[in-house]
Amino acid sequence: MTIRVHLLGYLAKYSPTQNEKFKVDLGEDSTVRALLEKIQFPPDFEKMILVNGRQSNPSTPLAEGDEVFIFTPATGG
Predict the structure, then answer these.
(1) What pTM did the predictor assign?
(2) Could you count the other beta carbons within 10 Å of the beta carbon of residue 72?
(3) Strands (DSSP E) along 1-77, which ranges?
(4) Which backbone phi and psi does 13 adopt, to 5 degrees?
(5) 5 Cβ partners below 8 Å, 6+ apart?
(6) Is 33 part of any domain?
(7) Per-residue pLDDT, 9
(8) Disulfide check for 11: which of 1, 7, 53, 72 has CB 3.0–4.6 Å away?
(9) pLDDT of the residue at 77
(10) What percent of the chain has pLDDT over 90?
């Protein structure tokens, strides 16, 4: 199945294509964790994950055509 991925801002350096937007082919019944492993995203990196606009986590299942956004959490004060 094909997943559309958006690595926002400086996270694009973890993109296999060096672009913020790219597509990844995964096996059926894959999760966000499988996606992160496939693109070799650092496992201990602080991140927010949205799948089709909904907050998600590494155990969230993925389906054909899903759109995954990965970005750093907002900080400030």
Answers:
(1) 0.90
(2) 13
(3) 2-7, 21-25, 48-51, 54-55, 67-71
(4) -65, -15
(5) 15, 21, 22, 23, 24, 35, 39, 67, 68, 70
(6) yes
(7) 86
(8) 7
(9) 58
(10) 75
Q: Specify whether the backbone of 9 is left (phi greater than 0), alpha (psi in -120 to 50) or beta.
A: left
Decide if 76 is inside a domain: no
Domain of 54? Answer: 2-71
User: Could you tell me if residue 52 is inside a domain?
Assistant: yes
Q: Is the separation of the CB atoms in 13 and 19 below 8 Å?
A: no
Cβ(24)–Cβ(35) under 8 Å?
yes
Q: What is the pLDDT of residue 75?
A: 64
Average pLDDT estimate for 35-48: 92
pLDDT over 70 at 76, yes or no? no
Domains of the chain: total: 1
